[in-house]
């Protein structure tokens, strides 16, 4: 082997190692996740600007605040729609999703939120909507894709209203789509309130596979503000280790 060829192979190996070292690893115990999209501080920058920060590991786009009739709201990050439609069309976010993923970040879409019109009336409706999600945001095909050809890494269920029906069926059907594409890892996350069990996701958390759970330890009696008296991290830690379908849930 010529020295120049050897150097080429060494550089290729180094590049591979660097890429692997920065890629999001759900099994890591120090991942940093942040929600993006609501401009709550009134100075929200582009999605890509946050992904340029090495601290970030998971970006959760917030929110799809309407389903099964799809409505999206990302405040100042996207205000354009498809012609003749109220559905947001966000080519700038689409480009930033690809940039984030090139930096090893996972980008997932949060469904629900504190305000909006959402929920399922049956398991059948929920399963059908999983097909819609796959076609609009993942590897499927849809006439209107809010993020064009960008492919998300998963979804987050931030369910704070609209009932508790259908979510286990939704996850089951979406995971069936996930396994049809072995080219990448897809994720399911949840964002329950801290009162245990969660009023809307409690039964789903006990019956469906979640990769990550972002417990809302704020705005409730059991939040971090109540430490040490009422702060109930231990309840959720026990759930993760003993009741969760995925005993390695983060």
UniProtKB/TrEMBL annotation:
Keywords: Glycosidase, Hydrolase
Top-level division of the source organism's lineage: Eukaryota
EC number, as in UniProt: 3.2.1.14
Protein name: Chitinase 2
Source species of the chain: Coemansia furcata
Gene (name only): CHT2_3
């Amino acid at each position: 082997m010529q020295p120049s060829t050897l150097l080429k192979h060494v550089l290729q190996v180094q590049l591979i190692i660097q890429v692997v070292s920065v890629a999001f690893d759900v099994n890591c115990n120090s991942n940093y996740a942040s929600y993006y999209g609501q401009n709550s501080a009134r100075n929200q920058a582009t999605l890509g600007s946050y992904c340029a920060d090495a601290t970030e590991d998971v970006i959760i786009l917030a929110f799809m605040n309407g389903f099964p009739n799809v409505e999206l709201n990302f405040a100042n990050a996207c205000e354009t729609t498809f012609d003749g439609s109220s559905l947001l069309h966000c080519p700038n976010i689409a480009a930033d999703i690809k940039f984030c993923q090139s930096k090893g970040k996972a980008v997932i879409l949060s469904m629900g939120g504190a305000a909006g019109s959402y929920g399922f009336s049956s398991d059948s409706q929920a399963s059908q909507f999983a097909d819609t999600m796959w076609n609009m945001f993942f590897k499927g095909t849809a006439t209107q894709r809010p993020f064009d050809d960008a492919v998300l890494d998963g979804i987050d269920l931030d369910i704070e209203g609209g009932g508790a029906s259908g979510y286990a069926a939704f996850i089951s059907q979406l995971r069936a789509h996930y396994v049809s594409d072995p080219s990448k890892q897809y994720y399911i996350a949840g964002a329950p309130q801290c009162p245990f069990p969660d009023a809307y996701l409690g039964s789903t958390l006990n019956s469906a596979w979640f990769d990550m759970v972002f417990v809302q330890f704020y705005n409730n009696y059991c939040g971090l503000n109540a430490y040490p008296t009422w702060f109930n991290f231990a309840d959720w830690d026990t759930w993760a280790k003993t009741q969760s379908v995925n005993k390695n849930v983060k």
